[in-house]
Amino acid sequence: MYVGVDVGTSLVKAAAFDAGGRPLAVESRPVGLSFRAGLVEQDMEEVYAAVAAVLTALTAAVPDPVELVGLTGQGDGVWLVDGEGMPMRAAASWMDGRAHELLGRWQADGTFEEVFRRTGGAMFPGSPGPLLAWLDRHEPGSLDSAATALYCKDMVFERLTGVRATDVSDASMPFLDPRTRTYDDRVLELLGLTHRRRLLPPVGDPLPVGRTLGGGLPLDTPIANGPYDLAACALGAGLTGPGDGLLIVGTCLAALVATTDLDLTGEPAGLYISTDRPGFWLRAMPAMVGTAALDWVLSTTGVRHDEVDALLDAAPPGANGVRVLPYFAPSGERAPFVEPRLRAELTGVCLESTRGDLVRAVCEGIGYAARHCLEAAGLKGSLAVCGGGTRSPAWMRLLADVLGRPLRVVEGEVGARGAVLAAAERHGIALDRAAWTEPTAVVRPDPGRAAYYTGGYEDHLSRLASARERARH
């Protein structure tokens, strides 16, 4: 069997597949996030323990020999470890907002734009550049004593194998030159981090590989580290042709478009993710909040997840005038623009508004944000969709209407599939990619509703422009 491990922000999963890509079993464990005054952190020991637990349970449930393991996980943030790969402090999450003032200064003095023009990555508060610079100013001791500033999956990989390395996809933000596929020392200089260069892990190109030392897997099992979750989902959803796109409706709402054109002009936003294919990138617009926005509305209104479809079907397009700008993250928004102080807005509510109106309004708002991201990323071809949001058929119908295009729905553990496909290619194992990435459904838009939502999208952009202006003042 082939095993893919996906170390998500709130859930760690391990999935087993046979050689044809058919799922054999999935194990998952939740992991916590700590929110405090703009700081969002995770306990690295808890995350690694969850990885070991899902792997132990998976190999017990499916006793077939493990042929190969692929590893993926959440990107960005800062995961400081010592020379043995052990945690030096809590990990700063990609959702963290502590560096927003520092980022604001970089936006004002041109540093932010210059970094984008060099790397194709628009920094946001939870990306490694601002976080490392903040720690250098406020917690220099933690950096002095650390051996490496890793990404999430790299921390797990080092604990499983003893190998210290990242891959080109995770390294893409914000220090990697996408043309040379090596760290750009000028970027470190611009961010005041030249003296911290030693903390950057070696970039494995192609993917770093190793053999397991334990952690719930048989000793000496071959494992590949990466790509990180956005790029892994692109592989798992069959995204291979330039112009084709993927929308990940998960905690983070991520829009990806495959491209062979490295265009570093235009508004600095999102990033170019380098892949194992030189000259082939993923233009990524990873918005800060996806299903997390819906989860907040559900918890606030007392609606259960199994009630969502019925509520969506009962409320009409436009949600009876209720409208949501879905920018709920404490660190603002990062794609398709960077606005650290932007916050969510809920308008049009009255005593006649229902829970269904609120649920539909936030789902429509997320759909408009997705359309904005996909347009900015340059979508021209087909569109696949994956992530937890695909479990709601009503939301998929709504998304197809808002986006005005068919959706190739790819369900299951798409990131884990992509991690296995990447690991197999790295190890020279031939797998049938078409079979592994076959969509489970195609959802087509209703022409009438799609026309309605074209007007709704223009209204969304107008309200967003006003909200961004207020956030700056």
From TrEMBL:
Ubl conjugation recorded as keyword: no
Coiled-coil regions listed in the entry: none
Keywords: Kinase, Transferase
InterPro entries listed in its UniProt record: ATPase_NBD, Carb_kinase_FGGY, FGGY_C, FGGY_Carb_Kinase, FGGY_N
The Carbohydrate kinase FGGY C-terminal domain, residue ranges: 269-424
Keyword Signal: no
Residue ranges constituting the Carbohydrate kinase FGGY N-terminal domain according to the UniProt record: 1-203
Highest rank taxon of the organism: Bacteria
Gene Ontology process terms (BP): carbohydrate metabolic process
GO molecular function, one term: kinase activity
SUPFAM superfamilies recorded: Actin-like ATPase domain (SSF53067)
Any Pfam family: FGGY_N
Family: Belongs to the FGGY kinase family.
Official protein name in the record: Carbohydrate kinase
Source organism per UniProt: Streptomyces fagopyri
Taxonomic placement: Bacteria, Bacillati, Actinomycetota, Actinomycetes, Kitasatosporales
